[in-house]
Amino acid sequence: MADDERIPVGVVGVGYAGRYHAEKYAASPKAALVGVADIDRGRVEEVGSQFGVFATTDYRELFGRVRCVSIAVPTRLHCEVSRAFLSAGVDVLVEKPMAATLEEGKELVALARQQGRMLQVGHLERFNPALRRLEGVIRDPKFVECHRLAPFVERGTDVDVVLDLMIHDIDIIASLVRSQVHRVDAVGVAVLTDKPDIANARITFANGCVANVTSSRVSMKRERKIRFFQTDAYISIDYDQRRAQIYRKPDKSAGWLGIRGETVEMKDGDALADEIDSFLESVRTRAPALVSGEEGLRALEIAAMISERLRQPAASP
After folding, report:
1. 20 to 30 A Cα–Cα from 248, which one of 39, 92, 170, 293?
2. Going residue by residue through the chain (317 aa), what tens digit of pLDDT does each one get?
3. 305: which residues sit within 8 A by CB, 6+ positions away?
4. pTM score, two decimals?
5. What CATH number matches the domain at 3-124+271-290, 3.30.1360.120, 3.40.50.150, 3.40.50.720, 1.10.10.10?
6. DSSP letter at 256?
């Protein structure tokens, strides 16, 4: 692709996540990284120098320079910054969760629709090679179990663990179950912050599927696994290892002894590069984003239900 055909793009927030976004855009043949913004002058100038692009502490200086932008600022600022770019006619890829509140999420979806802009939400697990490899294998799950555990870091603690970590799995489950939520039960505990740092939620869908989801940001080890139970198979995915195990239901004549397992290894792949490539393609073709604002809003709705349950006092025995 010729340089003049590359899409001019910027990144707002070049901390941990945003710096990776800048790297992927700089390496993409579809994009021309033209500017970065961050309130930390030292950090933004360092990143700007690294990639040889315009650097500013005021994201509004990217208006008129970029056609699309990645927003990787703290969650509480997602709505403010996304709103500004959408209103300026710029397509937006905003990191998850799309907003700090359901009302803000609804505002962004409505604004993107009104402005005719692309709004993609950075639910990175949608691009995990393990999950993409099993598209078509996971069908109509009846029970889902997830564990997403991580050691404590201060990044992301402006929100509770539901919006910080659990929302990844909420989005995956919502994208596969495709049914309204009937009931949510949840428990959580604040350990190192003033918000729940570990939580468990039981989500019952109208079609009968039940999801049991556990997330912790105060664990000693990192674990990211999801298991699906459906009428014809059991599927276990280890996101970090990019490995899946599939156990298919045998013919009746074989009985349970006929169960055979299959291990699927997926060592290659770059989820963030794929996410950004998908976003750039949507910007170029105007095709709907794989994880649209509406998809991000659905995950945020379920997350809000769980967070609300966590705020309610436990029922007396």
Report:
1. 170
2. 555 689 999 999 999 999 999 999 999 999 999 999 999 999 999 999 999 999 999 999 999 999 999 999 999 999 999 999 999 999 999 999 999 999 999 999 999 999 999 999 999 999 988 888 888 899 999 999 999 999 999 888 889 999 999 999 999 999 999 999 999 999 999 999 999 999 999 999 999 999 999 999 999 999 999 999 999 899 999 988 888 999 988 777 666 666 788 888 877 789 999 999 999 999 999 999 999 999 999 999 999 999 999 988 765 44
3. 181, 184
4. 0.91
5. 3.40.50.720
6. G
